[in-house]
Every structure is written in C-alpha cells, then in structure tokens.
Write a structure and sequence with these properties.
alpha/beta; 3 domains; Elongation Factor Tu (Ef-tu), domain 3; metal-binding; Rossmann fold; single chain; detoxification; 42% helix; Globin-like; 12 strands; 13 helices; six-stranded parallel beta sheet; six-stranded antiparallel beta sheet
C-alpha cells in the first residue's frame, strides 16, 4: 500500500506528466538501452524509431498517476500489457532495471523540479505497480506453460505451408518441430515470432494474430509486408518473412496470448469490422462463430484498398456460403476496373456512418474492430454517434496501444 503522502505527491505530478510524459519516456529508453543493450532483444525497434513505444509508455505512466489512489481502475490495462510482456519474455528481474532508469529519466527531464521527495514517492509507486505486473504475469506464465500443449518462452515451429493471400499478405502454416501437441487459443489471440535476422545485432520479436480457428494441428499467421514510405522504412521483419522464410524453415513462437477475444458468453449478434490486415483475428472469430455458434447472427465487414489487396476472401466467402447466420460486406476504397466488372465489393470508398447503419439495421450487438488506428477511430466514432454503448465495442492494436478514445468522446 502506498502512503497517503506519496499518493498526494504523485497526484501533484499529473499536470507535469501530461506535458513532459513523452520526453521522460524518450529519455528513459535512451538511458536504459545505453546501459542494457541486451534489452533491445525484447523491444520492437521499429516502434522505438517511430516514437510509438514512448507514447504508449507515457500514456501508461500518466494513467497510473491519475489513478494512483485507485489502482484497481487500471487493472484491465495492466492485464493487456501483461499479455504482451508474457509473449515477449519479460521477467521479474527486468522490473528493477526499468524502475531505476524511469526515475533517472524523470530527473533528467525535470531537473531540479524533480525533488528527492518526488523521486522517493515515484520510487514507492513504481514498486507497487511493478508488483502488480509481476503478479499478473506470473499467473500468465504458469497458465501458458501448464496448459495442455503449452510451453515456456519460445518454441520452434516448422513452416509447413506458405500461401500468398493477396498482393501484400502471405499466410504461414506453422507446426511444432517436435511433433507434439500445441496449446489451444481463444479466437482473436496472437503469437509472438522471434527472429534472428542476418546482419542484425539484436533479435526481433513481432506479434501476429492467429488467423484460423482454434483446434487445428497448426497455427496460421497472415502477415502484411510493410513496404514503408517517406516517413518510415520498410518493415524489416515482414520483409524477411515474405522474402526469406520458405516452407521447411523454422520460426520460434511464444504460446498464444492476448485479451482481444471473442466473448462466447454473449449471445447477441456479432459485428466484425476490419481494415487491411486487421481481418486476421476476425477470420479466426468468424470461423469459430460459424462452426460453434450458428444461432448468433454475424455481420463480417471488411475494408480494403482493392481486390488485389483483399486477403482471405475465398475462405470468408466459403464460410458465408455454408452458414445461414453469416452476412458479408466488402468496402473497397479504390476498386479497379476488374473489381467493378466482377462486382467484388459492396461499397466504393470508405466506411461511412449512413452506410454502416444501413447494413447493420440493429445496433444491439457486440462489435469487434481491428485495423489501422485511423480506421478504428472513424468506425468507433460512427458507432458511438449511432448510440452503440462503449462497452459493446472491442478493439485490438498491432503494436503499442494507441488512443482512439478521443474519436468516440
């Protein structure tokens, strides 16, 4: 338990964190990686370069300060981050390192304003928060390793099949190298893939949603090749997977993780809304709903640039044709002439509120969103404006958690 004095001091720093939070986390990562370069084997280097990891950590620290007198309020966020930590291999011994350099970063950015009293209070607070993470993650490690077919850390899998799904997305069918059982997962969960890429000094770890239904003798991930642009370079991991990994090669996987999962206790209709490669967890959910919950009406809405970029279409349509409870809608932002001729889509342009309402009709449903952040911001705002309660809207991020709340406020 934190002392009342420490709680008061932490609360007083909230305005400072709102202004200087990102500067503090940038300093933190710089200081920590300089002293402990081995931790670069855990963190996503691209997210570091793009500033996404720094922003996500700043938001987490800010939320902890705001709710320091009621840390139970941030337990859902703790569990979400803990899933990522477990899949990355974060261990209890890493927390003292993080705490040390977080306090150093606060002092580095705030200077004399970071008094001994403030640093002591934050040191005390960090200890309480770290203990919460360590406790939650210990349970997750135990569950992951102890379940049927489970394992600790990373396990070698063989690429049994490699299938090009679209102009930008390729699927990898992965079977355990030891031929033994694999762990079950919940539709919507992901695995971490760890790669040692030639010429790279550190390992790279990325999370990829499982894109097929549970219960198969393999895991399937469907990976978009990130080609980069003027702002950001091409994705080193996705490029390596697409260009260098072949059938028969080995990939090292964590056990499935993640809390963006299908709520099977909710018997209402389900709306699955995806953009681009965000359809991967949705296809897993769709498979499960069609096969095990035929009484639940399902609307599958997917937005893609055009037919060439639209992945897993045949599988989705096969499910829809064989399932009376499934309705499919495709939205192409820039359809080709071939798309128009073949009538591959239902709407041209982006998903807009009036069209969304016209295809859904009844807003009383469970909504699952996944895709680029601007896509989710727009769709969530449309749903909220229509009167869908926030608790009925579930969403997943690729990479560090971003902010889509403002769009639905």
């Amino acid at each position: 338990m934190l002392s009342e004095q420490s709680i008061g001091i932490i609360k007083s720093t909230v305005p400072v964190l709102e202004v200087h939070g990102v500067a503090i986390t940038k300093s933190f990562y710089g200081l920590m990686f300089e002293a402990h370069p081995e931790l670069m084997n855990i963190f996503n280097h691209a997210n570091q370069k793009q500033g996404r990891q720094q922003t996500a950590l700043a938001n987490t620290v800010y939320a902890a300060a705001v709710h320091i007198d009621n840390l139970a309020a941030i337990i859902p966020a703790v569990k979400q981050i803990a899933h990522k930590h477990r899949s990355l291999g974060v261990k209890p011994e890493h927390y003292p390192i993080v705490g040390k350099f977080l306090l150093m970063a606060i002092k580095d950015v705030l200077g004399d304003a970071a008094t001994d009293e403030i640093l002591e209070a934050w040191g005390e607070a960090y200890g309480v928060i770290a203990d919460a993470f360590i406790g939650v993650e210990a349970e997750m490690y135990e569950q992951s390793q102890g379940q049927s077919g489970g394992w600790a850390d990373f396990r070698p899998f063989r690429v049994e099949r490699k299938v090009q799904e679209s102009s930008v997305i390729t699927s990898f069918y992965l079977v355990p190298q030891d031929g033994r059982e694999i762990a079950a997962f919940q539709p919507g969960q992901y695995v971490s893939v760890k790669l040692q890429i030639p010429g790279e000094s550190h390992t790279h770890i990325r999370q990829y949603s499982l894109s097929d239904a549970p219960g198969k003798p393999y895991y399937r991930i469907s990976v978009k090749r990130e080609r980069g642009n003027d702002q950001f370079p091409a994705g080193i991991v996705s490029t390596y997977l697409h260009e260098q990994i072949a059938e028969g090669d080995t990939l090292h996987l964590s056990a499935p993780a993640g809390d963006f999962v299908l709520d099977t206790a909710d018997h209402r209709p389900v709306v699955l809304l995806s953009g681009g490669v965000g359809l991967t967890p949705m296809v897993s959910m769709l498979n499960t709903l069609a096969g095990q919950y035929p009484e639940r009406a399902v609307t599958f809405i997917h937005a893609a640039q055009d037919g060439g970029a639209h992945a897993l279409r045949q599988q989705v349509e096969s499910i829809a044709l064989g399932s009376a409870n499934v309705t499919v809608q495709y939205c192409y932002e820039r359809p080709t002439d071939a798309d128009r001729e073949a009538q591959h889509y239902h709407r041209e342009g982006r998903i807009e509120p009036a069209w969304l309402q016209s295809v859904l009709a009844n807003r009383d449903a469970a909504y699952y969103l996944c895709g680029p952040v601007p896509f989710m911001q727009s769709v969530k705002a449309s749903l909220i404006k229509w009167g869908v309660p926030g608790e009925d809207i579930h969403y997943e991020f690729f990479g560090p958690k971003a902010d889509i709340e403002a769009a639905g406020a």
